[in-house]
Design a protein that fits this description.
Length: 294
């Protein structure tokens, strides 16, 4: 008998209040996912391009606030249920707009892994491509990159045998290293912290590079070759390759965040669609309870 009663308890139709609690909990999980992804952007190089970071954080905070408001309505959700759903609709609309704007700004989706390569500004498009070309705007971004020590670890380089590009020396390099092991360098480090390989500069040590000796044939015509400086505060932060590296970093970061946001949007929209029948049920219960309270 005890087992049958438990089975009936598990199979019974949940009350509107129980369904509301489950709905609010699902919304709360989605809101914390959005907020955590937004805060994660702020801990990376992407934080230097705040046009994408801070709106996402603001949407995430608003999402969490509305979700917590839904938790407060669990005891009596009938009164403000329309306000809650209106707020949720606004947040989801803002989240969708954020995803679309971000993809337009960075010029599409890039789900590829980071590779050891060099970056050209001409390979990128989108709204941010024009923004980083603005000297005043780029001055703010480059100052942010220097403040975040974007070139940390670039004072001891080794040449990648697969690409010929200089990359930071890993801790394991030279110990158990084989030619099949992959070396890594971030897009920002590749573009901002060393001269392009086409310049033909010779690596000395740290961030010191020597140009092609006078009289020798020029091995590169890249305009970034003249912008490189051994000064720790200058390096290649004014190079087009640095701007391209920043754009690539942002594009990869935002592509991942946009994917997570889209999953949350789809799941939240499905949950809202499934729970829309709760509104008349909750309001009906509130209406039937009023005479009793009176």
């Amino acid at each position: 008998m005890a087992r049958r009663s438990r089975l009936r308890e598990m199979m019974r139709t949940p009350t509107p209040e129980e369904s509301w609690i489950k709905f609010v909990l699902g919304t709360a999980v989605g809101s914390f996912v959005v907020l955590s992804c937004s805060v994660g952007l702020a801990t990376r190089t992407t934080d230097c391009v705040r046009v994408l970071v801070w709106p996402s954080i603001a949407i995430g905070v608003l999402y969490v606030v509305i979700s917590l408001a839904g938790c407060c309505l669990c005891c009596d959700p009938g009164r403000l249920v329309f306000v809650y759903f209106a707020g949720m609709f606004f947040v989801l609309l803002a989240l969708l707009a954020s995803v679309v704007f971000g993809l337009v700004a960075v010029g599409g989706i890039d789900a590829t892994a980071i590779e050891v390569r060099e970056y050209n500004l001409s390979d990128y498009s989108g709204w941010l491509r024009g923004r980083v070309a603005d000297p005043q705007y780029w001055a703010t971004i480059s100052a942010c990159l220097r403040g975040k020590n974007a070139c940390h670890g670039m004072d001891d380089l080794v040449q990648d045998p697969k690409t010929g590009i200089f990359v930071p020396r890993p801790a394991w390099y030279g110990k158990m290293w084989t030619s099949d092991d992959d070396l890594t360098i971030s897009p920002v480090q590749s573009g901002c912290c060393k001269p392009p390989s086409s310049c033909g500069f010779t690596y000395v040590n740290g961030t010191t590079w020597t140009p092609t000796p006078p009289g020798a044939p020029a091995t590169g015509t890249d305009v970034d070759c003249s912008r490189w400086s051994n000064d720790q505060q200058a390096l290649c932060f004014q190079c087009d390759s640095c701007k391209a590296g920043v754009l690539d970093d942002i594009k990869k970061d935002w592509s991942l965040v946009a994917f997570k946001f889209t999953i949350v949007l789809i799941l939240q929209a499905c949950i809202c669609a499934c729970q829309r029948s709760l509104v008349p049920q909750l309001q009906g219960r509130e209406a039937s309870a009023r005479p009793l309270l009176a």
